[in-house]
Specification:
49 residues, 0% strand, mainly alpha
């Protein structure tokens, strides 16, 4: 569900992630951020490579 919020309101998704990402499962954060730009995505999931 969060994956599609960013399509309509990226600012709302980022605000939600700022508040909740630290308590979310890693896979949920990855799914929510997969359509965001790389620098924004890395802020939440970190570098993997």
């Amino acid at each position: 569900m969060l994956r599609y919020v960013g399509d309509n309101d990226e600012a709302a998704l980022i605000a939600f992630l700022d508040e909740h990402a630290s308590r979310m499962a890693r896979v949920a954060v990855r799914a929510a951020t997969e359509k965001l730009d790389k620098p924004v995505r890395e802020r939440y999931v970190g570098r993997t490579h």
